[in-house]
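input
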Amino acid sequence: MEEVTLPVLPYALEIDEKGMERDLPKEAEIALLFLLIESEFKKLFKKFKGIVKISFITKIYYPLWIAPWKEDIGLIIDGLNIFPQIIYYHEIPNYTNFIEGIKKSSTEEYLNKLREYSLNFLDFKGSRSLIISIFPRKDIIFDIQSCIIHYKKDNITNALSLNPKLSWQQVSNFIQILKESEADIKTLNGIRKDLIEKTNEEIGKLKKEIENIQKRYSTKIESDKTEDKIKELQVEYQSKVDEVNRRMEEEIKSLMSESIIIQKEIQNLQEKQKEYSKVLEDLNEQSKTLSKQLDILQRKRNELSNKLLSQTAQLETLKMERNKLEDLAEARKGIIEELSLIRERLLQINGEMNKIGEFTLQLERELRQENEKREVLQDSLIKLNKQIGDLERLIKDSNLLIMEKKDRLTSISYQIEDVKKRRHEEILKIDKEYRVKFDEMRDRIKILQSEMTQKIENIKRWINEIIMRTDKIVLQIDRLSELKSSFIRNFLYASVYLPKNLKFDTPIMLEIPFYMVCYETMGERKYNFYSPIVIKRVYKILPFKKIYIRMKIFDQIMKNKIYELMEQDFSFENELLNCCIKLNLLERSGIFEDLIKGINQLKLRKLISNKEASKIMVFLSKYALKRGKSLEKHDLRFEGEFE
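output
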């Protein structure tokens, strides 16, 4: 078998009490293997009924490709292609025209280019495929990673290296696909960066254009000095409004002052009216008293008048009787007695007449007195009535004056409202007059501002659409980058970090050692596999060891798949068996010397006891005796029996 120098992983490692890992010597490794075989022999004897003998024990190297992928990272690929996968590489869309188009386009053309290529990165264009084998279990890669730092380049002799089914070229092609995917990601990121930079550049130009538009229109607005004119008009407008307000306020103040004066006059009139009312009441009382007195005098005067009339009538009667008697006496001059009687009667009548005259005079005097009193009372009553009339006229006049004053107050309130209304109307008139002027001036500003706003809005719409379309294209690019990244991440779990002293540029073969033991039974061969192991020493009161089987998962998967290959491919089984028989560890010269050295090394390291060492030698002694060989020259004592 051709000898080659390849990176080879160690079969057995020892972890000391400090936690440091180190390789075991080849002899100790072989002794440890036989210790494991002997410890499991009884279990295998029960499992494989009718075991006759161990046909061979062979060290086999399982081929893995380790391909440098990224810096200090290598991808592990199954060389036997036991776990084939169809890998598709999707090519990214043509981007050259897009990049050149947007870089050469002007600001006006840039948006059209984005519209033209808005669907360019929506999906991949074209694909390639190949079949490659990647381990489906992360723990296998973890086991490989944990011991790869202990690799050593070695010539594989006296061992079987399984021929890889995957060629170096296939592995290289796959790595090239991964690198192309990474390059695609860089390309997409570059396109993304160029697109964003170009978009930012164009947006910056458009924003600068907005600033220039604002400056131009601001200059136009300032040159028109519309704002200054508006300010002047506002001052003039405010001055007129203030003048109207001032004038109207003066009128209102004058009316309010007049109102206050009238209210005071009304109050004074009302107070005087109260005084007149009191005096009138007194005069009315006096008038009533005088009227009563006058009534009394009138009654007395009437009585005296009646008496005077009665006396006058009586006097007239007496005068008539006297006249008759005188006439009769004149006629009866001859008759003395009748004449004396008449004269006596006349004297009597004269006496009565005198009395009546005196009484009449007295009545007349009393009547005159009463008339004088009556006249005095009448004069007083007339004066009093005149005073009452005067007071009533005063009260009436004051009522009329109060009503006039109140009417004036009412008219003042109306006048005030009218002043306010006129003020409002005048201000509205001024406002309307100046509003027309303001509107004319502001319309000019609005037209300019509208033009400016329209242009700015158009540019902002361009900016928004550029941003929107850029974001969509960036999203498409990010999606493609994520698909590429996801494609790469699918294989990161099968990657290992490479030691600094393990540097190479192209894929190389990585060999993982394991031992295969063939047991012959009555009907067929049975196989058992021993994966790489690690020995861990733990010290408490007494030293003892712990043995862990490394890469158990790899052992199980490999065992099942190799069994399948052996069952499905008869030529592969014969090739494997022929090679294993030729490389049988039990038939190798010097095996027993190596075992003895290894056992002694394990004993010196306190990894096995004398009893365990004796078990190994008993196991081998029985095997040797069956083959007609002897171990007497090694001077070893054995305990136990070979079953």
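quick obs: Residues 540-544, 630-643 have pLDDT under 50 and may be disordered.
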